[in-house]
Amino acid sequence: MNIHHDTRPTLNLIRLANGEGLDLPTYESKGAAGIDLRAAVEEAAPLTLLPGKRALVPTGFIFEIPEGFEGQVRPRSGLAFKNGITCLNSPGTVDSDYRGEVKVLLINLGEEPFVISRGMRIAQMVIAPVTQARVAEITAASETVRGAGGFGSTGV
Ligand SMILES: O=c1ccn([C@H]2C[C@H](O)[C@@H](COP(=O)(O)OP(=O)(O)OP(=O)(O)O)O2)c(=O)[nH]1
Ligand SMILES: [Mg+2]
């Protein structure tokens, strides 16, 4: 007998009033890395993002990111390629202790106005493990071959 345990961490979602009727955010293909996030703007009031402008777009859900993980809010490449729409703070960080609505900070880097309608898939969230380091102040850095060289110090 084969017993398969689902070892994936659980992502609890809480639907907010503005998320009523929206599809549950989900992986759109079997191997998708990100969960697509949908715009919870009002049906009757699509959001027009003018060139160069930004907007914080609601998703209609609280995501309870499991402890030891983060949610990375990333752009969708199709919107970026076709319309110049991206996430200004990419990748956005959703902390595991955040209990507010997940929002997406979109910016229009294209040349045309972009209309965001209710339910449009505007970004994706990748659930990724994080390590919290123990922070310790010391007085001198240890020596390495690289030393302070950076920002192209090894050539092109
Ligand atoms: O794209 C994003 C980025 C952040 N957040 C939420 C979840 C995250 O846990 C919280 C804080 O984000 P961050 O730490 O990046 O922003 P901050 O400017 O440091 O705000 P805070 O002082 O609240 O930590 O805002 C989103 O909903 N979407
Ligand atoms: Mg912060």
Please describe the structure with a list of short key phrases separated by commas or semicolons.
1 helix; binds deoxyuridine-5'-triphosphate; globular; 10 strands; four-stranded antiparallel sheet; 4% helix; binds magnesium ion; 156 residues
Structure description:
- The chain has 156 residues and is mostly beta strands.
- The chain contains 1 helix and 10 strands, in the order βββββαβββββ.
- It has a 4-stranded antiparallel sheet.
- The radius of gyration is 20 Å and the shape is globular.
- It starts with 11 loop residues before the first strand and ends in a 27-residue tail after the last strand.
- Bound molecules: deoxyuridine-5'-triphosphate (DUT) and magnesium ion.
Q: Can you describe this structure in just a few lines?
A:
The chain has one helix at 77-83; strands at 12-15, 34-38, 47-49, 54-64, 69-75, 85-87, 92-94, 101-108, 114-116, 121-129. By secondary structure, the chain is mostly beta strands.
3D shape:
globular
Uncertain regions: pLDDT < 50 for 5+ in a row? none
Overall SS class: mainly beta
Q: Which sheet architecture does the biggest sheet show? A: 4 strands, antiparallel
Helix coverage percent:
under 10%
Order of helices and strands: EEEEEHEEEEE
Main sheet: which strands, in order across? 1-4-8-6
- How far is the first residue's CA from the last residue's CA? 56 Å
Q: Return the average pLDDT rounded to an integer.
A: 97
Number of strands: 10
The total of helices stands at 1
Strand content: 35-45%
Say which molecules are bound, naming each kind only once: deoxyuridine-5'-triphosphate, magnesium ion
Radius of gyration: 20 Å
